[in-house]
Amino acid sequence: MNLLDKTLDSLTQHFQLHYKKGKYHARALIREIIKNGNRNPETIPELVASPEFLRQLSSSGELDSFLPLPDIVEICTENLDNEICAENNQINNSHQDRTIKFVSRLQDGQHIESVIIPMKQYNTLCVSTQVGCRMGCLFCATGASGFQRDLTTSEITSQLFNARFILKKSIKNIVFMGMGEPLDNLDHLIQSIAVLNEPHGFDIAHRHMTISTCGLVPRIYELAASLIKPCLTRPNLAVSINSADQEIRSSLMPINRKYPLAQLRKALLEWPVTDRQLILIEYILFKNLNDSQEDARKLADYLAGLKVRVNLIGYNYANNRNRSISLQPVEDSDIHKFASYLEKYGIFVVKRWGKGANFKAGCGQLSAKKE
Ligand code: SF4
């Protein structure tokens, strides 16, 4: 039994079924272990007061399997000049405001990467949902590393546990933008959202979660349908567009051949945004490929009628081999210029300056392969 894939309801059901215990004990465990990071269940007052239950949990072996945490095997953070890597899970206090990438080793020996990004008032955690990715976007190191497997729910949620209680960072925002295409692992994604949202546990509000997709159109509909019922509020949707030109987008993102821009737009029109939400459009700028005024006009036309905000990101060189086209990074001035074109067409734009790019923690740089 694994607490990292349980909500209060599902743990209550488990206790009722196997131990004739209920919500009182389930709430205590989730509160102490998941919310407070206490990794010693034998000190939880509600369990201490129920010695027979504690004995049953212990003899069934469940106490030992409560928290199957992956080991953090590497931590990288940046100083002003270059990277610092730590092997001993320690982050120097002087690195509090820096982007941090940590590598976790899963039980089968695979590795995943997660990134803690400092924001003005809190930290955002970028989590992985797969080991590798099968979508093959041309600009992405994860895509180039190939697909190994989906992560389980607990492998996804353990990234937050480790960030909060091993690395001791306060995290308020989760973005599903690490390794993998989240909608390609939909069942575990949906279960993770429920576990992360559990008010007695991780307690991350839906509005503080963002799911990023390259445009798996049928799964966008499935995700919308699965979230509408249980959620009054919904996580944010981010879609990686990168070009509103069919040919250019297909050359960057193979998924566009299967689900072309027009189909994607229809799915976005039907995505249930609440009054206070926008769909986030991710647009990575590549020099002389998708950064002209004409590219901005096409994007503005494509987004007309959608409630969106465009996040502009400069390309991070991801060291991909076997590329059919050469991808070049842009200057900061190109980002400003493209933003001003879009603004002229009435599009709400945010310029995102690549955090962590100099030590491969930036967008498109995470990789399943340990170097
Ligand atoms: S950008 Fe996202 S969907 Fe595309 S290959 Fe990389 S991880 Fe996969």
UniProtKB/TrEMBL annotation:
One example GO MF annotation: RNA methyltransferase activity
The Radical SAM core domain, residue ranges: 119-352
Superkingdom of the source species: Bacteria
Membership in a protein family: Belongs to the radical SAM superfamily. RlmN family.
GO BP annotations, alphabetical order: rRNA base methylation; tRNA methylation
Pfam families listed in its UniProt record: Radical_SAM
GO CC aspect terms: cytoplasm
Protein name, UniProt field: Radical SAM core domain-containing protein
Primary residence: cytoplasm
Keywords, ordered alphabetically: 4Fe-4S, Cytoplasm, Disulfide bond, Iron, Iron-sulfur, Metal-binding, Methyltransferase, S-adenosyl-L-methionine, Transferase
InterPro entries: Aldolase_TIM, Methyltransferase_A, rRNA_lsu_MTrfase_RlmN/Cfr, rSAM, rSAM_sf
Required cofactor names: [4Fe-4S] cluster
Localization annotation: Cytoplasm
